Amino acid sequence: MSVKLYNQEGAEVGTVELDASVFGVEPNEALVHQYIVNLLARRRQGNAHTKTRKDVRGGGRKPWRQKGTGRARAGTSSSPLWRGGGTVFGPQTRLYGYEMPKKRKKIALRSVFSDKANSDRIKVLDQIQIDEIKTKSIVSLLGKFDLSGKKCIILDEGRNDNCALSCRNLQSVKYSRAATTNGYDLLNADYVLMTKAGLEKIVEVFG
Hints:
By secondary structure, this protein is of the alpha/beta class. The chain is 33% helix and 14% strand.
């Protein structure tokens, strides 16, 4: 599959081929769902933690003798039955995500890329060169492709600090290095803008 290659001014300067191994596969929706659920689960902090009876401070001495007081038997003040005692079956620090095979992750990302390519939502630029950090530069760039106000993700290879910092104040625009992009950001974006170098890196990493 070949798509048009544009420059920053929005003018067509040629065509570029999208590798079929990444952009021409049959989307696997079930695997994409599994990938996204795992990705979001791994982002959960899981910091909630309650103290059990072994974690509560004190409780080493028997509060009173076993018999003869008229009160119920008690062995420790850290008992869950006591005020200030431990908690039974409370939340513990944990990781919500799980390990997913790398091959499955790649198939899921290929499915997302292929879906974007099939719906003609990929724009390839020869390069993205921004001389200074200005949000207006990104807004102007998107306007030349009729993408103003639409959710977009920009993929580039190497460090492009000016571009990354210029995207910070735009809620609908996200910048990412091509090699480290994830399926959630790709699915969330209406359009994918990538440089030619970023396209080559995507094929190298995910192909």
